[in-house]
Amino acid sequence: MHTIATRSAPGSKGQETAKRVRMAALKRFAGAGYAAVSMREIAADVGVRPGALYNHFPTKQDILKDLMLTHMADLLTAWDTARFPEAMDPLERFVRFHIRYHLERADEVFISYMELRNLEPDNFEIIEAERRRYEAILTSILHEGSAAGRYSVDDPKVATRAIIAMLTGIPTWYREGGHLGEHDVEDLYLTMVRKAVASETRNFQTETG
C-alpha cells in the first residue's frame, strides 16, 4: 500500500496546518475544480502566505494526490472494520456499506472520480492501484457468488465497475430531507443491483442490517 507523503513541519502545529490545507483544498477543488484553483487561493483560505504551503505540499498536484490516497485508504480501512449481520448476503453488505460511506463524503467522492483526469501519469497509476484493491472486494464477492449459484455474472470485473459506478453516482443527486431517506436509497439500489446479477434459479430475500 502506498504511503501518503507530505513535507509537514514537525510538531502538532505543522500537522494542524497540513490538515487545514487539505480541508481548504478539498472545498476549493470540489467547488471550482482542480484546474481553476491556485495555491494562492488555498493559502488565503488557510490564512498563511503562499510560500508556507510548500512546507507541507511541494505542489498542488501533491495535494490532489494526497486527498485521493487518503480517501482510498480511509475507504479500505472502513470496509475492513465495518460491522454487518453475519447472515447478510455479501453483495448486500457491500452495497449498503458503499452507499453509507460515500453519502457522508460527497466532496471526497466528487474529487476522487472527477479529478482523475488531472492526475499526472505516475500519480494516476498509484491511485488506480488503490481503486483496483477496492474493486477486487466486489469482484471476489461476485465471482464466489456466481460459483455458488447465488448470482449469475458473465464477467465479474465488468459487473464490478458497472455496480460501483451506479452506486457512486448517488451523492450527485441525493439530498438529505428529500422524499427518500438513506435507507430507502439503500433498499432501492440494492434491488437494482440484485436484479442485475440475479440467478434464474434463485430468488433473493432482502436482508436488513
TrEMBL record:
The HTH tetR-type domain is annotated at 15-75
A Pfam family hit:
TetR_N
By its UniProt entry, which Gene3D superfamilies does this protein fall under?
A: Tetracycline Repressor, domain 2
UniProt-recorded Gene Ontology molecular function terms: DNA-binding transcription factor activity; transcription cis-regulatory region binding
Source domain of life is: Bacteria
- Transmembrane stretches, by residue range? none
Task: Report the PROSITE patterns cross-referenced here.
Answer: HTH_TETR_2
**Portion annotated as DNA-binding:** 38-57
| UniProt entry keywords in alphabetical sequence | DNA-binding
The name this protein goes by in its record: HTH-type transcriptional repressor KstR2
Gene name of this polypeptide: kstR2_1
